[in-house]
């Protein structure tokens, strides 16, 4: 995509989370630990699912892809935010800003489709168990993951189609730790009301409608599970409750921010931190704590790595 921005602004100033030097040192240490835990946790899930034959099933294939997206979602802006805590000049170039917006909507759109796919997987597994392996074939799973990335790309491109050529002639301060589209378009030198309405229809309302559909889907699954009392049904209920928790954590902040893009609430910055940093961290925690198979395989995979390293260092 060619960036033909005809404005005087060549960079944006990110105001970050705080102007207090003491708080910034605390945030640096805190978010460094959180980011490291997020990347390592999601990477461990991906490698465990790839290496363990017990986890070579449609549900875990989708979970592995979700962990990859979460790891990427936590990485599009967090490393710069952490570095900015030690910098007085928190600037980002116009191209860098557009790149952040692109990856946020690419990964966000892909995750929405993937969460819907995981809901469909659980629906088939619980409501149509005899046809599960036929419906959720390898071809279907690969198709769902591919669709998630295709939708993510088209969604990101649609958000940038009108944004890249907006004239920015000052001010250039973004009240966040990364370039979020609702905050950036407010800095344009033209009336962005129509663009804001477009953003509501393509981001806010889509997120809201998808969340409602997912709530309906998991309600149907819950009703079906409650008709059974077997151990397998209890396991299914635990898995679905973990999925629904992840859905709520992801969609809640997105809906709040993108359904009301014209209004800037004080809590917006907190919600931005939550869905770009904490949700990718909580996802592996939720799935591992609620899923015995994943926990057992992760312990086995971790112990295998440590034993291999110990053997390599033994003279």
From TrEMBL:
Cell compartment(s), UniProt: Cell membrane; Membrane
Alphabetical keyword list: Cell membrane, G-protein coupled receptor, Membrane, Olfaction, Receptor, Sensory transduction, Transducer, Transmembrane, Transmembrane helix
Keyword Lyase: no
Domain of life according to the entry: Eukaryota
Membrane topology type: Multi-pass membrane protein
Molecular function via GO: G protein-coupled receptor activity; olfactory receptor activity
GO CC, alphabetical: plasma membrane
Domain G-protein coupled receptors family 1 profile, residue spans: 41-287
PANTHER family in UniProt: OLFACTORY RECEPTOR
Primary role: Putative odorant or sperm cell receptor.
UniProt-recorded name of the protein: Olfactory receptor
């Amino acid at each position: 995509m060619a960036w033909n921005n005809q404005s005087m602004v060549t960079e944006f100033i990110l105001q970050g989370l705080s102007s207090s030097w003491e708080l910034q040192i605390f945030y640096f240490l805190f978010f460094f630990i959180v980011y490291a835990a997020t990347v390592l946790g999601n990477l461990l899930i991906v490698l465990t699912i790839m290496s363990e034959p017990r986890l070579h099933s449609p549900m875990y294939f989708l979970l592995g892809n979700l962990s990859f997206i979460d790891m990427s979602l936590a990485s599009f802006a967090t490393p710069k935010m952490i570095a900015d805590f030690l910098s007085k000049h928190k600037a980002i170039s116009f191209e860098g800003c557009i790149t952040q917006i692109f990856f946020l909507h690419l990964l966000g759109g892909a995750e929405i489709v993937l969460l819907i796919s995981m809901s469909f997987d659980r629906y088939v597994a619980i409501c149509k168990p005899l046809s599960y392996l036929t419906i959720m074939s390898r071809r279907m799973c690969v198709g769902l993951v591919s669709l998630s990335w295709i939708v993510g790309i088209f969604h990101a491109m649609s958000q940038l189609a009108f944004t890249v050529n907006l004239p920015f002639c000052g001010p250039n301060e973004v009240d966040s730790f990364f370039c979020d589209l609702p905050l950036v378009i407010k800095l344009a030198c033209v009336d962005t009301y129509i663009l804001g309405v477009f953003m509501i229809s393509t981001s806010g309302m889509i997120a809201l409608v998808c969340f409602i559909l997912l709530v309906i889907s998991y309600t149907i699954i819950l009703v079906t599970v409650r008709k059974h009392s077997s151990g397998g049904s209890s396991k299914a209920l635990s898995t679905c409750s973990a999925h629904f928790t992840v859905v709520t954590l992801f969609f809640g902040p997105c809906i709040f921010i993108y359904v009301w893009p014209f209004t800037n609430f004080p809590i917006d910055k907190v919600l931005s931190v939550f869905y770009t940093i904490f949700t990718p961290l909580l996802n592996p925690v939720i799935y591992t704590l609620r899923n015995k198979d994943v926990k057992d395989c992760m312990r086995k995979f971790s112990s295998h790595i440590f034993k291999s390293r110990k053997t390599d260092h033994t003279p």
